[in-house]
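Protein modeling request. Please complete all fields; requests missing the sequence field cannot be processed.
Requester role: graduate student
Desired output: 3D structure, C-alpha cell encoding
Chains: 1
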Amino acid sequence: QVQVVESGGGLVQPGESLTLSCAASGSIFSLSVMGWYRQAPGQQRELVATVTSGGSTNYADSVKGRFTISRDNAKNTVSLHMNSLKPDDTAVYYCNVVASTSSRKFYYTQYWGQGTQVTVSS
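Delivered output (122 residues):
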C-alpha cells in the first residue's frame, strides 16, 4: 500500500559529505513523521533523525550539528544531509515513514525502506 525507497548511499572518506534521499509512494492519504534510522553490524537499529509534517526535527546526539533532515511534503520525500562523516557513521540507513492510506484514513502505520549502505572509510 505504501512503498518506501531510499537512494544515495555509498563509500566516502572521513570528513566527506553524503546525502540520502527517500521517497514514499502508493495509496498515501497522510504522512506524519518521516525519519532515518541506521543499523551497524552487530548493533541494534537506532534513530538518526526525524521530522514531523510541521517541520519539527529531532536528532540523535551523535549526529547533532553534522546531519540535517529535511522533507518535501508536496513530493512525499525526506532527505538526510550528512556532513563531516566519521567511520562510526558506517551502517545501513533505513527510511521510516508513518502514514495512513486512502482506505484507512485515520489509522497510521510505520513503513520501512529496504535500506542503503553508507560506508565511511579511508
